[in-house]
Write a structure and sequence with these properties.
Elements (H helix, E strand, L loop, with lengths): L15 H13 L6 E10 L6 E7 L4 E6 L7 H13 L7 E5 L4 E5 L6 H4 L5 H17 L11 H19 L6 H20 L2 E4 L8 E2 L7 E2 L6 E4 L2 H7 L8 H17 L8 H28 L10 H14 L4 H11 L10
Antiparallel strand pairs: 1-2, 2-3, 3-5, 4-5, 6-9, 7-8
Helix pairs in contact: 4-7, 4-8, 5-9, 6-9, 7-9, 9-10, 10-11
Length: 350
């Protein structure tokens, strides 16, 4: 999920067909790339305004052409981050040519199989261990002042997407003063937890649709243009509590512990106590999932991408289970019950 669509209500997708023609003309001008431009075909869809195409080369290879409208997409950040990740020995697309003014890029092709295509109970362990190794490798090479900071204001803006788009637009609800206070209290707990964590490089969408399965150097990593410097558990929770793929709690806990052990061996300053680490992980997940509820609602109500509503139940399940486990977060559960008119007939006991 490239979740970082600009938040202006007036964001309108540019004419796709006109841009496709312009892209094809630009590709035809790249004489050194031996591209067969008439083989241009759709490669994948995206939650942002970007479009991806695959095309063949004269020597039997394939390339990916990326149409990233400059008004909404930051291609300079993509190019910069591709170079940074490559320097860390991570597998990322190589940028072969670009025209930032038009928002066109030509990159190497990491293949057609995302994790989402091939994840199952037989493949999951190997795939997740490879992804965790890549994550630790990236985090261990983190430095401050390289990427934008995932600071309090940034995290807060994301939580407001839940407020505005999920509660306001999707549920059509207006919070009372008491309800606002409840939500504010929960947000404050989540923000304090996130900001107290060790800070590292954060991909921000490190999950099954942005990881490519590769024979060598698995995984290939894409959609990294929104990377920031922020909480150490963020990418792990994106991976293991994926909005599109859900695993048993026992498996998630096992993988989280394995990450924690690898991170400690790599010298990352994760908490020495696994219970504290897992709490950080869960609370970070709640911040992310509240944001995602807002983004999925926005994709539907503003951008007409209604398919994302199908993923709301998985995300809401994560939200409710986490809120249920911590007394500081239980008020969120009660608020959701009020908003969705699903208050249980029997009271909770705490």
């Amino acid at each position: 999920m490239s979740s970082h669509v600009p938040s202006t209500p007036s964001a309108v997708a540019p004419d796709k067909e006109q841009r496709r023609i312009a892209l094809q003309q630009w590709l035809a001008s790249l004489s050194d790339q031996a591209l067969l431009t008439d083989t241009l075909r759709a490669a994948s869809s995206d939650a942002s305004f970007r479009s991806f195409y695959r095309l063949d080369t004269a020597d039997g290879k394939t390339r990916i052409a990326m149409d990233a409208p400059p008004a909404t997409e930051n291609s300079a950040a993509f190019i910069r981050m591709a170079g940074l990740l490559k320097s860390m020995n991570l597998s990322v697309p190589e940028v072969l040519a670009h025209d930032l003014e038009q928002g066109f890029l030509l990159v190497s092709d990491l293949g057609q199989h995302t994790y989402a295509h091939i994840l199952n109970h037989d493949t999951a362990f190997k795939l997740y261990m490879d992804a965790i190794d890549a994550l630790v490798l990236m985090q261990a090479q983190s430095q401050p002042d390289v990427l934008p900071e995932y600071d309090r204001a940034f995290l807060e803006r994301e939580l407001q997407i839940f407020n505005e788009w999920y509660i306001g637009k999707h549920l059509g609800a207006t919070l009372s003063e008491d309800q606002q206070k409840t939500l504010r209290g929960v947000f404050d707990h989540l923000l304090a937890s996130a900001l107290a964590q060790p800070q590292v490089f954060v991909h921000r969408d490190f999950h099954s649709r942005n990881l490519m399965w590769m024979d060598q150097g698995n995984p290939g990593i894409v959609d990294f243009q929104d990377a920031v410097y922020g909480p150490i558990t963020y990418d792990l929770v994106s991976l293991l509590r994926d909005a599109y793929v859900q695993w048993d709690e026992e498996m998630v806990l096992d993988w989280a512990i394995r990450y924690w052990e690898k991170a400690r061996r790599a010298g990352l300053s994760v908490p020495p106590d696994i219970d504290q680490f897992y709490r950080d992980f869960e609370w970070m997940g709640l911040q992310r999932h509240l944001k995602i509820l807002g983004i999925f609602a926005r994709l539907s109500h503003r951008d007409g991408k209604h398919q994302f509503l199908n993923d709301i139940p998985t995300v809401m399940d994560y939200v409710r289970k986490t809120a249920h486990r911590y007394k500081e977060l239980v008020p969120l559960l009660r608020l959701l019950d009020q908003l969705e008119n699903t208050a249980p007939q029997v009271g909770y006991t705490f």
